[in-house]
Recover the amino acids of this structure.
């Protein structure tokens, strides 16, 4: 299950990160993302609407893989699982959350930004990691450095990734995909501006295609 998920995310190249204040906005937002060409979203647990937004999107937007992001506790991970989340993403490395997800059979992408945390993840058998906050933690240069001692680890950099620099990340062999909210800004979500979201997502898909056709070689 995890391998199929990671292969899917690698194929997509970008994971849109959504913050939903009102669960009623979840379906139109996720549908706009899907119509723009990306069949996956990460809905963050930064609001009280997150659990219901995950549940509705999972059941009412077929064709979209829905993950739960900004998961800080075992309780949130359990709520995400019960709501139907296909995977869990954490901003930092919490061994209890990782262990819970592993026991529950739900793929987890924990956050790291240094070698010590990478090795903590490897100790638990986790080889796909969120690199966060990417820009503040050294960006592509840090990822290149981590690629030397950890050639079997793949990263999903998030935090400071944008349309302007996603190519710098996707061109790295140890980057599985990038995550970000630039194509689904909270203001557009709150305003219900699904057309703007769809266009921004489509533009991102075009940029990813352009980067990859330029000769980058990546695989999970």
């Amino acid at each position: 299950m995890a391998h199929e998920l990671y292969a899917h995310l690698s194929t997509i190249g970008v994971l849109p990160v959504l913050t939903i204040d009102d669960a009623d906005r979840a379906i139109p937002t996720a549908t706009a993302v899907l119509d723009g060409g990306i069949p996956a979203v990460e809905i963050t647990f930064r609001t009280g609407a997150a659990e219901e937004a995950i549940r509705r999107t999972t059941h009412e937007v077929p064709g979209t893989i829905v993950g739960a992001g900004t998961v800080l506790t075992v309780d949130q991970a359990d709520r995400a699982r019960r709501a139907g989340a296909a995977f869990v993403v954490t901003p930092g490395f919490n061994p209890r959350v990782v262990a819970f997800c592993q026991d529950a059979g739900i793929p987890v992408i924990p956050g790291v930004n240094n070698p010590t945390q990478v090795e903590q993840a490897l100790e638990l058998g986790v080889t796909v990691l969120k690199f966060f906050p990417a820009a503040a933690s050294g960006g592509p240069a840090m990822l290149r450095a981590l690629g030397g001692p950890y050639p079997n680890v793949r990263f999903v950099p998030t935090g400071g990734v944008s349309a302007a620099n996603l190519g710098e990340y996707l061109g790295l062999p140890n980057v599985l995909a990038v995550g970000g909210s630039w194509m689904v800004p909270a203001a557009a979500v709150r305003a219900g501006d699904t057309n703007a979201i769809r266009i921004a997502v489509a533009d991102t898909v075009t940029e990813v295609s352009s980067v990859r056709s330029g000769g980058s070689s990546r695989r999970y």
Summary: Strands lie at 14-18, 40-44, 65-69, 87-89, 108-109, 111-112, 128-131, 154-157, 178-180. Residues 51 and 79 are 7 Å apart (CA to CA). Residues 2-209 form a domain with the TIM Barrel fold (CATH 3.20.20.70).
